[in-house]
Amino acid sequence: xxxxxxxxxxxxxxxxxxxxxxxxxxxxxxxxxxxxxxxxxxxxxxxxxxxxxxxxxxxxxxxxxxxxxxxxxxxxxxxxxxxxxxxxxxxxxxxxxxxxxxxxxxxxxxxxxxxxxxxxxxxxxxxxxxxxxxxxxxxxxxxxxxxxxxxxxxxxxxxxxxxxxxxxxxxxxxxxxxxxxxxxxxxxxxxxxxxxxxxxxxxxxxxxxxxxxxxxxxxxxxxxxxxxx
Length: 229
Known about the structure:
Layout: H1 2-14, H2 21-30, H3 34-55, H4 62-76, H5 86-111, H6 125-131, H7 136-140, H8 143-154, H9 158-169, H10 174-181, H11 185-207, H12 212-217, E1 223-224, E2 227-228
Antiparallel strand pairs: 1-2
């Protein structure tokens, strides 16, 4: 009920402008309207978390990355020129922050390979994961298959993973993916093709592993594409 009230209050304040809902939202954000910021979080928190959790190597780091994404959105929204959609701009920030996190983690591991993780480093992640927004991809796959795909995605080279996730899971057009990643359309298509092949190989490797139940009961292994595995 409170969320509805926030939305109605904000819409009423800008209803006479004749602008689109995105333009009204941007106007509110630029003016520092608290209701606009609440609507932004309501609309984009779960999609951004879902995207980031698939781009970072350790999903437990997604919460911190998402926080950085929205901090940057809040700080830079006044300079957003509207040359792309708001979603494209936010996703571009999310992809860049996920890359930065991977680079930092790589350097950190090189320097501190013998150190144990800091206590409480991943606290709160499970709550975020349970609340993450479900995309059409999530809804059409059963839990076992979804888990296999998510595991296999982590094995895909990060150079291809972002394009693959944006296109195949987030459902963006090739043009939108190119805009977010700031690369050419041809490069996008190449990355997605190579990402699909890498994902196929990773999935095959995952499916080649017998489940504990199959091993214990002596059941035949599963089949994929007509071949015993």
